[in-house]
Design brief:
The protein has 4 domains: 76 residues, no CATH class; 102 residues, Lambda Exonuclease, Chain A (Alpha-Beta Complex); 60 residues, no CATH class; 64 residues, no CATH class. The protein is α+β, with helices and mostly antiparallel strands and 387 residues long. Helix 2 runs antiparallel to helix 3 and helix 6 packs across helix 9. The longest helix has 41 residues. Helices cover 46% and strands 20% of the residues.
Length: 387
C-alpha cells in the first residue's frame, strides 16, 4: 500500500485473496484444512504494514478488523466444507464483453467465483464484507450482478440456467436471484447512459463534487474542491487573504439566505392563494397597483431518474422495446416526451403505456411585471420592458 486505505476495505480484499487461494488449491485436489486456511490468512497480515491502514470508527482498531475477517472466513469454511458442491469454473475470473456493439463499448468484469452446480445451474458468486445486507429486490436490480451475467452469457452462450448470488461474509448470509431478460436489458441501457454521461462530463470538464459520509475515507480529500477551503482555513499559517475574505462573504451570504427563507415562505403562501383565485376565476393576469402578475400554466412530461426512478425506468423500457429505440436512445426524458410522445412517433400501444408515466414537471408559475413610473406600460424587476 503506497497510500492510506480503509482498514475495513483492505480486510475485504484480504478475504477475497484467501478465498481465491482456497478454491485454486481445491481445484487441483489440495483441500486446505480449516486450521491451514486460517493460518494462511493470519500469515498474510504479517507482511502488511499497518501504517497506511485508516480506521474511521474510533471505537475499533486494525486488530478488530483482522479478527472480524478471521471469524468471517471460519464461518464460511464451516458452512461450505468440503467444497465439493459442483465444479468451480473460475475464481477472480476476468471476462470482457460487449455492452453496445454499435458504439464499441466493452466492459471488463472480474467475477469472484463462477461455479456449475451438480444440477447444472451456473452460479455467479460475489463475496461481500459490508456491514449491511440487501433486500431481495435490491439484489434483483443490482446492476453489478446484471453486468456479470451479461459477461458470462457472452463467454458461454450454452449456459442458459444462470443464478446470481451474493455471500455476505460477516453475517454468513447468502442471497440468490434469477435475473429476467427485461432486467438485463434495463441494466444494459442504464450502463450505456452512464457512459454517455461520463463522456459528456469529460468533454465539458464538468465533474461536480458529491459529498457523503464516505468523504472522510477518500485518499484525495485534500484535493477535493468541496474540502479545500475548509482545510485552508484550518491551517492559519497558509490561509491566503482571498480565502479569508471568501469566508466573510460566505458568512454574509448565509445570513441573507436565512432572511430570504423567511421572505420566501411568505411569498410561497401568497403564490398558492393567487393560483387558487386564478384557477377559480379563470384568470391569466392579476392586477395590482404597482404592476401585474401573469399566471403561467403547469407543464407535464416524463420524470427524470431523480424525480421518479420507477417511472423513468418504465419509460426507458418502453423506448428500448419500440421501433424508435435507435432514434431516442441517446435522448433524455424531455426529448422523448416532446419529440416522441407529443408528436406521436411511437406506436399507439407504446403511447398508451407512456401516458401512465406522465407527471407534472412544473407547477403553475407566476411572472411579475411592474408599472413604469411616469409612463404607460410595464417593467420587469430587472428594468427590461414587457409587452
Amino acid at each position: 500500500m503506497d497510500r492510506p486505505v480503509s482498514a475495513d476495505l483492505f480486510t475485504g480484499q484480504m478475504l477475497h485473496r484467501a478465498l481465491e487461494n482456497l478454491y485454486d488449491l481445491a481445484a487441483t485436489g489440495c483441500l486446505l484444512s480449516e486450521e491451514e486456511f486460517l493460518e494462511r490468512y493470519d500469515n498474510s497480515w504479517e507482511t502488511v504494514s499497518h501504517a497506511n491502514l485508516v480506521v474511521y470508527d474510533l471505537a475499533q482498531s486494525v486488530e478488530h478488523y483482522i479478527k472480524l475477517g478471521r471469524d468471517s472466513l471460519q464461518k464460511y469454511y464451516r458452512s461450505h466444507a468440503p467444497f465439493d458442491d459442483g465444479v468451480t469454473l473460475g475464481v477472480e475470473k476476468r471476462l470482457t464483453f460487449t455492452l453496445d456493439e454499435e458504439r464499441g463499448y466493452k466492459i471488463v468484469a472480474i467475477i469472484d467465483r463462477l461455479r456449475r452446480r451438480d444440477d447444472g445451474v451456473v452460479e455467479i458468486i460475489d463475496y461481500k464484507f459490508s456491514k449491511g445486507i440487501p433486500s431481495q429486490k435490491d439484489l434483483e436490480r443490482n446492476p453489478q450482478m446484471a453486468l456479470y451475467q451479461m459477461a458470462v452469457q457472452e463467454s458461454w452462450p450454452q449456459y442458459e440456467n444462470i443464478v446470481v448470488k451474493q455471500i455476505f461474509l460477516r453475517q454468513g448470509e447468502e442471497f440468490s436471484a434469477k435475473l429476467s431478460p427485461d432486467l438485463l436489458d434495463e441494466a444494459r441501457y442504464q450502463a450505456v447512459q452512464d457512459i454517455l454521461e461520463i463522456k459528456r462530463a469529460l468533454s465539458e470538464n464538468e465533474f461536480p463534487t458529491k459529498e457523503s459520509p464516505l468523504c472522510k475515507r477518500c485518499p484525495y480529500f485534500s484535493l477535493c474542491p468541496a474540502k479545500r477551503h475548509r482545510l485552508a482555513l484550518d491551517d492559519e499559517t497558509t490561509a491566503e487573504e482571498e480565502l479569508l475574505d471568501a469566508q466573510k462573504k460566505a458568512e454574509r451570504y448565509l445570513q441573507l439566505s436565512t432572511e430570504s427563507r423567511t421572505i420566501k415562505a411568505e411569498l410561497d403562501a401568497l403564490k398558492e392563494e393567487l393560483l387558487f383565485v386564478a384557477a377559480k376565476e379563470n384568470l391569466r393576469t392579476i392586477e395590482g397597483e404597482q404592476g401585474r402578475i401573469k399566471i403561467g400554466s403547469a407543464q407535464k412530461g416524463f420524470p427524470s431518474k431523480s424525480r421518479d426512478l420507477q417511472k423513468f425506468l418504465k419509460i426507458s423500457e418502453l423506448v428500448r422495446k419500440s421501433e424508435m429505440a435507435d432514434v431516442f436512445l441517446d435522448l433524455n426524458e424531455k426529448a422523448a416526451y416532446k419529440d416522441g410522445f407529443l408528436t406521436e412517433k411511437f406506436p399507439q400501444e407504446t403511447l398508451d403505456a407512456m401516458r401512465e408515466c406522465i407527471i407534472e414537471t412544473r407547477k403553475p408559475s407566476l411572472s411579475v411585471s411592474y408599472n413604469k413610473k411616469g409612463a404607460a406600460g410595464t417593467q420587469a424587476p430587472d428594468g427590461s420592458e414587457k409587452d
